[in-house]
Amino acid sequence: MAGPLVSTGWLAEHLADPDLVILDGSWHMPADGRDAKVEYAAGHIPGAVFFDIDAVSDPATDLPHMLPAPAAFAAADSALGIGNGDMVVVYDGAGTFSAPRVWWSFKAMGHDRVAVLDGGLPRWKAEGRALESGAAHPAPAAFTATPRPAILRDFAAVMAIVADKTAQIADARSPGRFTAAEPEPRPGVRGGHMPGAVNVHYRSLLNDDGSFKSTGQLRDVIARAGIDAARPVVTSCGTGVTAAIVMLALEEIGAKDVALYDGSWTEWGSRPEAPVVTG
Length: 279
Prior knowledge:
Layout: E1 5-6, H1 8-14, E2 20-24, H2 36-42, E3 49-50, H3 70-79, E4 87-91, H4 99-108, E5 114-117, H5 120-126, E6 152-153, H6 155-164, E7 168-171, H7 175-179, E8 198-199, H8 215-224, E9 233-236, H9 243-252, E10 258-261, H10 264-268
Parallel strand pairs: 1-5, 2-3, 2-4, 4-5, 6-10, 7-8, 7-9, 9-10
Helix pairs in contact: 4-9
């Protein structure tokens, strides 16, 4: 594995590897009316285990699916049969939506042997590859988390970045939400964006089938949005899910200094002291 993405062909060839763990990291917006667990049970890549983004999160905050404490993350992974020596491949049922969030979570906990399945379950199914149904029952393993704070930013850190401009901010939300032309989907959250942020809509990084665009295309999209991949970047979105798509794309083109704002716009837009720009 040379980068953050693996192909369906690669995964099909390695399904029997003893150190491979496949995770279905599907998560959908409430308005989509989709149940990721039901869809997983109906049909998933052989051997895949369901990774519940909402369950493996910090229960001490009302912000959605925030990264949990290292011990809680490690306990969840151990129960899913994931060891520190395992290669983890994550996919989702949308093509590319929530799987990069799981990828980032593992990296934030010090596990680098993790990749996203390019094109996810839709591509796997379109190619006529095998599926299985029902629940998985993995044997427990031993996972130890080693937090990597360099790829995570909190509210205070982003407030400082907005003030001193020590990093670029790439906002993955839609252009309408970025400008406040569209309302935020969560009540009590203001519309708009952080001062100095630029809009890198996550969909602009993907092909129609949900796979990532080529490295050259990603480089062009990111540069046209106004992001210099050679300088520090913090990615943000609504709840820290699609921000990971932008982060993965930046890693794919060779960016070295990228972090994700976990609270993202749900936190920022809810805090009265946080400055907001509209238009």
